[in-house]
Amino acid sequence: MEPPAKGTVTPLASLFSEEEARKAASYVEEKIGEKRVEMNRLQQFVDENDNLINLVKKLPDQLHHNVMVPFGKMAFFPGRLIHTNECLVLLGENYYTDRSSKQTVDFLKRRDKTLQSQIHSLKAEIEDFQTEASFFATTASEAAEGLVEIREEYVEEEDLSATVFQSSEKETSNISGGEAEEGELEDDDFARIMSRLNELEMEEEQEGEDGGDRGEERDSPIEILEESQHDLVKGIRGETDRGRIEYGKQETTISVPMKASRHSSSIREPRVAEPRVKAKVIQVLPEAHPHKDIDDQLNCIGPMAQYLPKGDQSHSGTAQQNAGTWRDFQATAGISTAKAKTNVLGPQKIESPIEKPEPEFDSTKAFTGSIVEHAHIQETSTHSDTQSSASQPSKPVSRFKAQRR
Amino acid sequence: MEEGRQKDLQLLEEIIDKGLKQKLVHATASRDKIFEEQKVLSDLRKNLETLEKNAVNSLKTMVNLGSEVYMQAEVPDTRHIFMDVGLGFYVEFTRHEALDYIAQREERTKKQLEEYTGVITQIKGRIKLAHYQIQQLLNLPEENPSSSRQRAL
């Protein structure tokens, strides 16, 4: 830590003088007054309208009413209102229409509604101005009290950054583990995967420190993913063997390892950026990281939701011949393909990866996905061959289509 | 000397802004009211004259119920008319009596108008005088642009 003072201290009064703040407050108060006047005017209209509605409602009760008929502004004739169910209503722009008193009441009610909405918006405006005024007033009083603003640049030191990074990594892994809150078996799997990932990362750190090239880095996450894929599929398989057939359960249990694998890729990204910008790592890790995890989860869960019903569909399509195990397999296969996709696409930051699965899949396969695809498909297809003859080992998605037929 | 001039200037400006201009606004407002009254009276007179000319004894009209909603109304007898004579009093006139009354009233409003016009011109003259005094206090150079402005106006 550096002993000399790094920050700056600015008294609030120098930024906003008390006088100015008070002036602003009074200005806003004036505006509030104007708005109040306007609102009173509108309220008057509303009252008039209400009176008129009552009057028009009452008028048809009798055939005629004796009234003083105004003749100009200063003179009246004694007379009476006739045709009490007929009103001539101004629509605006000098257009009048004949209406019955009921229709007139409806018309006036609609007018009342518009007036009310106007009053409502005015009220909101006044409230807005009031908060503004109170803000100015508090600023003024704070400036008067001599409040100061202290700013200090956050400078991170070398060795500290490494420890922080490590700890934050552990933290995030713990967090995602805690987030999962599934069965212990999954946690075990997850822990195993994480430890493996950590090992791999350590190796990587030792190998290429300042290389930092995306191209070099790209291969390694996929290797890890491959690894994790194997583990995952095994884990899932173990689960299904144990006989957890319910779909909802399956969904949740599978989401745990997915999180783990996603997690690995998301850790990797800040790691790549690390040697270049020290401070950024510190910022990115604690804040952006969990956030990203959530995003990734969303991305993952999306395709899962897409894929599970598909499995269901195919299940119903071939309803006669299947059993619970077959169904399980479908679910796992669908999810693992979905997972494979998201994992492969993840590092490249492609948004909404599974909308058009086939072309994207091919394009990614061209330079990154091949290993994952291969391993994965062999893994699944060996199983699928035992159970479905319609599977095409080259592309998992087309296999899906085939199954759906 | 300089201070006294500043004080005079301030005083004059105060007189113009706070005294004379507000008076002028009041005077013009009340004169506008009287103009309106005059217009109402002349309209009423014309209407009554047409009724008289055509010997109309009953008429149908539309009554404004408020907010531009009208309803038909019938006047069975137009020979008698109630007129506002001020302070909320209404007097029943026959048409001839009403016409006489309107003529008298019009004359009175005319006088009032003249009065108010006199007051307004007086206020305007005072304002001009104050301006002139300000010019005097600020010496000649200020006089030329303002006089040219007056010509332009």
Distance linking N and C termini of chain B: 34 Å
Give the helix proportion of chain B (percent range): 55-70%
Distance between the termini of chain A: 68 Å
Strand order of the largest sheet of chain B: 1-2
| Largest β sheet strand count, sense and barrel closure of chain B | 2 strands, antiparallel
Low-confidence stretches of chain B: 142-153
- The total count of strands of chain A amounts to 6
Pfam families (chain B): Prefoldin (PF02996)
InterPro entries (chain B): Prefoldin, Prefoldin_subunit_alpha
Keywords (chain B): Coiled coil
GO molecular function (chain B): transcription coregulator activity
Overview features:
heterodimer; A: 405 residues; mainly alpha; Helix Hairpins; 2 domains; two-stranded antiparallel ribbon; 11 helices; 73% helix; disordered C terminus; B: alpha+beta; two-stranded antiparallel sheet; 69% helix; elongated; RNA_pol_II_subunit5-mediator (chain A); Prefoldin chaperone subunit family protein (chain A); nucleus (chain A); Prefoldin (chain A); transcription corepressor activity (chain A)
